[in-house]
Q: What sequence folds into this?
């Protein structure tokens, strides 16, 4: 039986897309399990699960991109914010679909007191990873700084819906609930 070449390419493309979709469907399974367990975990277990989630989020799939992320984080930890932004900008340029690159650069911009670029990068991180409780917590902190307690509270609640034991966020949400309730009188 002779197969015509013009029919072969669409068939191969269709099969490849099925395999790619199947691979992508399984890519989030470890994270899905971690998030499921996080919702019902006690505070100690939640802390361990959070570290595991951050570890998964920090894997770009490329050793070179992982190195840029680590260099950016190291520069931030050393207080070299401009250097961190440079490394993380290279990361987001070369791996635009890597949510943690955007989140890390948002943190560097925040440390540099550049709130506009920080919010922009948080938005990009959340588009790529809607469950990024760290990005949500950062956005809540920015809304607080911008004196928008209602919006900060809304974002903190969204973060807590994902990670009920997120350090410091429950306290911030309670404080803001009292503040927002007091302004409604």
A:
């Amino acid at each position: 039986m002779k197969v015509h070449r013009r029919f072969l390419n669409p068939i191969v493309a269709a099969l490849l897309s099925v395999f790619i979709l199947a691979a992508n469907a399984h890519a989030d399974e470890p994270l899905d399990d971690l998030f499921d367990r996080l919702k019902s975990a006690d505070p100690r277990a939640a802390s361990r699960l959070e570290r595991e989630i951050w570890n998964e989020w920090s894997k770009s799939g490329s050793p070179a991109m992982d190195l840029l992320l680590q260099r950016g984080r190291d520069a931030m930890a050393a207080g070299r914010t401009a250097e961190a932004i440079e490394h993380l900008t290279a990361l987001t340029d070369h791996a635009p679909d890597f949510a943690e690159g955007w989140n890390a650069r948002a943190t560097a911009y925040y440390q540099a007191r550049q709130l506009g670029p920080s919010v922009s990068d948080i938005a990009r991180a959340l588009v790529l990873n809607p469950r990024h409780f760290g990005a949500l917590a950062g956005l809540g902190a920015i809304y607080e700084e911008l004196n928008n307690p209602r919006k900060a509270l809304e974002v903190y609640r969204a973060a807590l819906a994902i990670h009920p034991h997120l350090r410091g966020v429950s306290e911030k949400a309670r404080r803001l609930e009292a503040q927002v309730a007091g302004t409604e009188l």
User: Anything to note?
Assistant: The two ends are 81 Å apart (CA to CA).
